[in-house]
Design goal:
With 154 residues, the chain is an all-alpha fold. It has one domain. It is built from six helices and no strands. It has helices spanning 3-6, 21-46, 55-73, 76-79, 91-119, 122-150. The longest helix has 29 residues, at 91-119. The two termini are 26 Å apart.
C-alpha cells in the first residue's frame, strides 16, 4: 500500500484514504456529542437528583449519533450535492471516521469519570472538554489547510 492510501495529502484522496482531515473532525464530533449528552447526567446529579442518563448510556447515545452522522453524510449529503468532492466515503474512511468519533467519546468519558465522578467537579469537566474540543478543532483546521494547500490547482 502506498502512504497516500493511509493518509490523504491532497483533495483527491479525501474520503478514500483511511485518514483525512475529516478524521480529526470526527474526534471533535465524538467529544462534542458526549459533552452535550452528558449535560443530562451532570446537571441533575449536581443538584442532588437522580440523573436521567448514565455515562454508559451517554457513550452509547454518542456512538449512535456518530454512526447516524455517517449515514446522513453518505446518503443525504450526496443526494443534495453537499458532500465534499461529491462522492461517498470508502469503507476504509467510513470505518476510520466512526472509530475516531468513538475515540473522542471515550476520551470524554474517561475525563468525565476522572474529573467529575471522583472530584464531583462538573465545571472542571466542561472547561477541560471545551478546551479539548477547541484543540482538536484547531488540528482539524490546520490539517484541512495543509491538504488543500498541497493539492494541484485545477
Amino acid at each position: 500500500m502506498l502512504f497516500n492510501d493511509w493518509i490523504a495529502t491532497i483533495i483527491e484522496e479525501v474520503g478514500i484514504s483511511w485518514f483525512d482531515f475529516y478524521s480529526i473532525g470526527h474526534i471533535c464530533l465524538g467529544v462534542g456529542l458526549f459533552l452535550f449528552f452528558s449535560l443530562f447526567y451532570t446537571i441533575p446529579k449536581k443538584k442532588g437528583k437522580t440523573p436521567i442518563f448514565s455515562l454508559l448510556f451517554v457513550f452509547i447515545l454518542t456512538m449512535f449519533f456518530v454512526i447516524l452522522w455517517e449515514i446522513i453524510e453518505n446518503t443525504v449529503f450526496i443526494f443534495f450535492d453537499w458532500k465534499f468532492e461529491g462522492r461517498a466515503d470508502s469503507w476504509q474512511n467510513l470505518t476510520t471516521d466512526i472509530l475516531m468519533g468513538v475515540i473522542g467519546s471515550l476520551g470524554s468519558w474517561l475525563f468525565a469519570y476522572l474529573i467529575f465522578e471522583k472530584d464531583k467537579n462538573a465545571w472542571g469537566y466542561y472547561i477541560f472538554g471545551f478546551i479539548g474540543f477547541a484543540l482538536w478543532l484547531s488540528v482539524f483546521i490546520i490539517l484541512r489547510y495543509l491538504t488543500l494547500e498541497n493539492s494541484p490547482i485545477i
